[in-house]
Amino acid sequence: MGKLSDTSINKIKEISRRYPTSESALLPALYVAQREKGWLAKEIMDEVADALDLPRVRVYGVATFYTMYYKKPMGKYVIQVCTNVSCMINGGEEIFGHLKKKFGIKSGETTGDGLFSILEVECLGNCGNAPVMQVNEDFYENLTIEAVDEIIDSLKKKK
């Protein structure tokens, strides 16, 4: 995995200047790095630590704590499906099971073509419109299996 671009390093330093301490800029800085590389390899986390002048272990601790930061390569489209109580009651587990069967992969895995990764997540914070899923930064609610298939088909057409 290559290094972060100068653009990302500069963005991380710019973000750092907006916060009282560089540590408080860590979450958005990791997001900048992940957005460029798709996931956070150890050497990328080291670059973030160096850019923020933080101990590397602090950056590893934060990056590994939050599930929104990927510690391995992911597909072009990362599909997160909530299976917590409200979503479970309204079909979230069935939707996640449908995706596992459709793609032939388990939670945390990526399809052979590198297009889709699926993650079963605890909560996406939208219980009132359950079941919900998130694809990269797009959010979908009140889902049915048919709606999920339409979303997947539209993503395949975009490639």
UniProtKB/TrEMBL annotation:
Q: What is its EC number?
A: 1.6.5.11
Q: Which family does it belong to?
A: Belongs to the complex I 24 kDa subunit family.
Per UniProt, the cofactor note for this protein states: Binds 1 [2Fe-2S] cluster.
Q: Which organism does this record belong to? A: Candidatus Zymogenus saltonus
Q: Which cofactor does it need?
A: [2Fe-2S] cluster
> Which superkingdom?
Bacteria
GO terms, molecular function:
2 iron, 2 sulfur cluster binding; active transmembrane transporter activity; inorganic cation transmembrane transporter activity; metal ion binding; monoatomic cation transmembrane transporter activity; NADH dehydrogenase activity
**Which keywords does the record carry?**
2Fe-2S, Iron, Iron-sulfur, Metal-binding, NAD, Oxidoreductase, Translocase
Q: Return any one Pfam family short name.
A: 2Fe-2S_thioredx
Read off the CDD domains from this record. TRX_Fd_NuoE
Protein's name in the database: NADH-quinone oxidoreductase subunit NuoE
**InterPro entries in alphabetical order:** NuoE-like, NuoE_dom, NuoE_N, Thioredoxin-like_sf
Binding of [2Fe-2S] cluster occurs at: C82, C87, C123, C127
Keyword ATP-binding on this protein?
no
Fetch the NCBIfam families from UniProt: nuoE_fam, PRK07539.1-2
One Gene Ontology CC term in the entry: organelle membrane
Q: Tell me the enzyme class.
A: oxidoreductase
Kindly state a single biological-process term from the GO annotations of this entry: inorganic cation transmembrane transport
